[in-house]
Amino acid sequence: MTNLLSNITPQQASLNRGAWLKGETAVRKLANRYPVVFVVTGPLYDKPMPSLPNATKPNQVPSGYFKVIAVQTPGTLKVAAFIMPQDAKRSDTLCQYQTTLKTVEQKAGEPIFPVIQKPIRSLSQELGCS
Asked: How many CA atoms lie within 13 A of 7 on its CB side?
């Protein structure tokens, strides 16, 4: 994790303490099983959101976030992708927000792993998702 001010965006507490936290926990478990775990996250701006209360400068609050988790295995990259909305409930699971890498790339407007030439397989089962 990187705890820098430049790495901070406004996130609803219910998302942060629910599905987002479950994703962070899943990454820690993967790190105990694989020597390298890649995690790419970012904000999404799919719909207008209210500004931060009491903000003195103009700001834009993300409508949600994406998280792509990947591990390398011989000859393959295993990937799981998620899009979590700001209005997620604390009781929500990470798996509820599972999507495809292609969908994340389309919404983010950028390729997530542009130089990867390996076949991509699903990491979902190892994260407890079907």
From this structure: 6
Intra-chain end-to-end CA distance of the chain, in Å: 27
List of long-range contacts for 50-55, beta carbons under 8 Å, 24+ apart: 52/10
Cα–Cα distances in angstroms (integers) from residue 22 to residues 45, 54, 95, 97, in the given order: 22, 30, 9, 11
CB contact burial 7-23 (16+ within 10 A = b; e otherwise)? eeeebbebbbebbbebb
Give 44's strand partners: 64
Q: What tens digit of pLDDT does each residue of 90-124 get?
A: 999 999 999 999 999 999 999 998 887 778 899 99
pLDDT tens for each residue of 61-92: 999 999 999 998 888 899 999 999 999 999 99
Q: How far apart are CA 119 and CA 130, in angstroms?
A: 20
